[in-house]
Amino acid sequence: MKRFFTYTLAVGLLSVAWASVVLYGALNGWWHKPITKSRDTKSFTSAVNETIKKEFVGNFAMAIMKNGKVEKEIFYSHSKPVNRNTIFQVSSLSKFVTAVGVMKLTEVGKINLDTPISRYLKRWQLPPSKFDNEQVTARRLLSHTAGLTDELGYSGFENKDSVQTLEESLTKAKDADKGISGEVKVGIEPNSRWKYSGGGFTLLQLLIEETSGQSFNEYMVNNLFKPLNMTSSSYILDDSLKNRLCEFYSADKTPAPHLYYTSLAATSLYSSLTDLEVFFQLFLKGQNGEPIGRGQLKPETLKAMREAHWDMMGEKIFGLGCMLYIDIENNEDIFGHDGKSTPPINTAIRINPVTGDGIIVLETGNPDIATKIASDWVFLKTGKGDTLLFTMLLGKMIKILLAGVLFIIAITIWVAIRRQAFASNKD
């Protein structure tokens, strides 16, 4: 019996050690095969083109940014041609842009990030809960730490006339993804854990309307898009943009419908590659003397967005409205946001605030190719797997972990049998 416990303990300790190796390997990209091994832009874009040929993509637009400027653009379309002024619906990347709009409200004194959001709202309030709703603030909504448990996930409406009012959607979203209640409420202690919440950004949409006195889209257009000359960006598709809207596809290559949303702030931004290149540059100092923020936001406001507000396993994962993908020098992180919805839209933006380098990918028809390409760009530049690459590698990690544990068990059993046989022969 003593030997049994000894062997069991050995298996446990070796398995823990192996799990640590697997985790370390995942964080450092050991289990990942990038689309190319070369760091130069020519090789990377060539590999992207090869990847697009192998996988179905309905429409595709990509920009490689170098020192804040466009270095290379790639376009692909299954049918209707795509260019840098084509309009894409960018799914959850919308949240990143919305967050900048919220931060602008803080600069003009309309809101305080740490004031209970209930004090700004008249049209709708969070339903009573066993937790303190007064702990729900704009800061916690932006960082997904407000304790909301909606898990939205909006599926959208095929018919524009079916779109709910903002208040109706917050109470119970009819377009909630399958299996999701669609109710925006406080279900866990605020600031006790990180939980992604699309409903939190719909609540921020209401906050912007209540404090600005404008519709959400009017506020974003008048206070961000027009001042930055982002003339192809809007959260509502108007006639001036409609004729440039890209086509939508399902993963089986068939045409998919264009969907409409109540949740504009969370998932309904329409924009072009050209405009998102301008948005990218908002966070950087221009080579011709343009300041960070381009005179629209203070540099310290934009820097505050990428200060970590939550981490997992010691790794920073989220700031204010943006993901923190991987740490780099000067206590900075490559940051940005991804978008993903069904029928497949996948978008990604990564910004290196130290070098001014980055990548923007817009795509329809494939559920994850934009995220894969953007994460590969980060991996090739840093040698480390970013937050989303780590997530994509989980399945592979589990297989490697289990294979290692089974090997440890097999070796331990073999050693036990050999020792037992040796002991018997000795007797």
In short:
Helices cover about 40% and strands about 15% of the residues. The protein has 14 helices and 10 strands.
What value does the average pLDDT take? 91
| Share of helical residues | 25-40%
Q: What strand line-up does the widest sheet have?
A: 2-1-10-9-8-7
Listing every helix as H and every strand as E from the N terminus to the C terminus, the arrangement reads: HHEEEHHHHHHHEHHEEEEEEHHH
- Spans of at least 5 consecutive residues with low confidence: none
Radius of gyration, in angstroms, nearest whole number: 24 Å
Q: Helix/strand-derived class?
A: alpha+beta
What's the total count of β strands? Answer: 10
What does this structure look like?
It is a single chain. With 427 residues, the chain is of the alpha+beta class. The protein has helices at 2-27, 41-54, 93-107, 138-142, 166-171, 198-212, 216-225, 239-242, 264-267, 273-281, 299-305, 369-382, 387-392, 394-426; strands at residues 59-66, 69-77, 88-89, 270-271, 310-312, 315-318, 323-327, 333-341, 345-351, 358-364. A hairpin with a 6-residue loop joins strand 9 and strand 10. Helix 1 (2-27) packs antiparallel against helix 14 (394-426), helix 3 (93-107) packs parallel to helix 6 and helix 3 crosses helix 7. The relative contact order is 0.17.
